[in-house]
Design brief:
149 residues; mainly alpha; 6 helices; transmembrane helix; transmembrane
């Protein structure tokens, strides 16, 4: 499997896992900002790497989603810097939904990397899934743990 696809899939996995953490927890604290920054960096990795993944050297719906998500995240970052919380939330939630939908298609459309890996090396696939979940959990726990008195 090409390194670009691995980087893309790992970054997308972190986006999908970190997005809900910031959506369901308290806002405007250092933990929210830290996880948000990780989310934005991972999302930019997803969008930029996605632009270089081609099947048959054609522009696909995935490329359009990458451009849309890149735009949403950038607008979301600008919005929060201008203290427009509702626009920020809308853009970030929208980017997470777009990534999750694209990931669902990538995971369930035959012939794509995830279904191929699941068929050829299911142990490797589940090991990667477990490692990503553990890594994301460690980051969240370390970021959101209460400050010591």
């Amino acid at each position: 499997m090409p390194a670009l696809i691995v980087i893309h899939a790992l970054a997308a996995s972190f986006v999908i896992l970190f997005g809900p953490v910031n959506m369901i927890r308290r806002r405007r604290d250092s933990g929210h900002r830290t996880i948000g920054r990780i989310y934005v960096i991972a999302m930019y990795f997803v969008c930029v790497s996605g632009m270089f993944i081609y099947s048959d050297a054609e522009f696909t719906i995935f490329h359009a989603l990458a451009i849309l998500n890149f735009s949403c995240v950038t607008i979301g970052v600008i919005a929060i810097r201008k203290r427009n919380h509702s626009l920020h939330a809308g853009m970030m939630i929208g980017s997470w939904i777009g990534t999750t939908v694209a990931g669902g298609f990538a995971a369930f459309v035959p012939g794509r990397a995830i279904p191929t890996l699941a068929a050829e090396a299911p142990g490797l696939l589940w090991s990667i899934v477990a490692a990503v979940i553990i890594a994301a959990t460690v980051v969240v726990v370390l970021t959101l743990r209460p400050a010591r008195p």
